[in-house]
Amino acid sequence: MKPALLCSMLAVLLGQPAQAAPSVDVSMYAVSLVGSPYRLGGSTPDSGLDCSGFVDHVYEQVAGIRLPRDSLAISEATQPLDPADLQPGDLVFFNTLHRAYSHVGIYLGEDRFVHATSSRTGSVMVSSLAAPYWRAHFDGARRVVLPQGAAPDTAAVEASR
Question: pTM value?
Answer without folding.
Answer: 0.80
